[in-house]
Every structure is written in C-alpha cells, then in structure tokens.
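Changelog-adjacent note: as of this version, every example in the card shows the full chain rather than a window. The one below runs 125 residues end to end.
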Amino acid sequence: MSETDLIRQWNTTRWHIIVSQIAPTLLLAFTVWMLVDGLAETSLAVRLAATGILLASGILGAAAQYAAATEGAGVVDGLRQLEAPSAVATRIVAMGWGVNVVRFVTPAVFIVVFVALVLALFAGL
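Full-length structure tokens:
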C-alpha cells in the first residue's frame, strides 16, 4: 500500500475506534444514572436484563474496538516499513502505541466498571 492509502486507512480505523466507544460509554453512564434513580431496587428480572444488556454491549464494543485497533496496528507496521515517511506518517508511527491502549486497557476498564455495576445491582442479595 502507498503511504497515502495507509494514512487513509489509519483515519478510517481511528474513526471506527472512536465510534465503537460511544455506545458502550453512554450505556455505562446511563446505567449509573439508573442506579441512582433506583434500578437496584427493581425486580430481579429487570436487573438481570440490565446486566445482560451491559454484558452484550460491552462484548460487542470491545470486539469492535479490538478489531479496529488491530487494524490500526497493521497500518502502523506498514508505515514503519516506508523508506521515506512523511511527517504525518512519522507522527502516526510515534503514536502507534495508543492502539494497544484500545486493545487491552479499554476492555480492562470495561470489566472493572461492569463488575462494579453488577455489584451495585445485586448488592442486596
């Protein structure tokens, strides 16, 4: 691939990473708000449904983020192999470590937040 193609792919991949984080983040925030509003005092079925929704969206969001970040890592590898990279390509390569944050840290944060929310939902049991 040419440098232009790789940078175009990087921009697409970066956009996919950003978009894939929006829904799970909003859902987690909404769940916290619902907990404040009494979600933990609802029926067991409602709390189980909320847990399932959180888990499903978290898994799908993490999978989308991981896939996009892995593609981003491939782009960084491609840019790294260029003989005379532009300033933009050099900066993308320098920031390439960020894809590992998306691949590993973001799902770990989701797991911690998910466990905290599950504990809050079922603390009375």
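Structural remarks: The chain has a mean pLDDT of 93.
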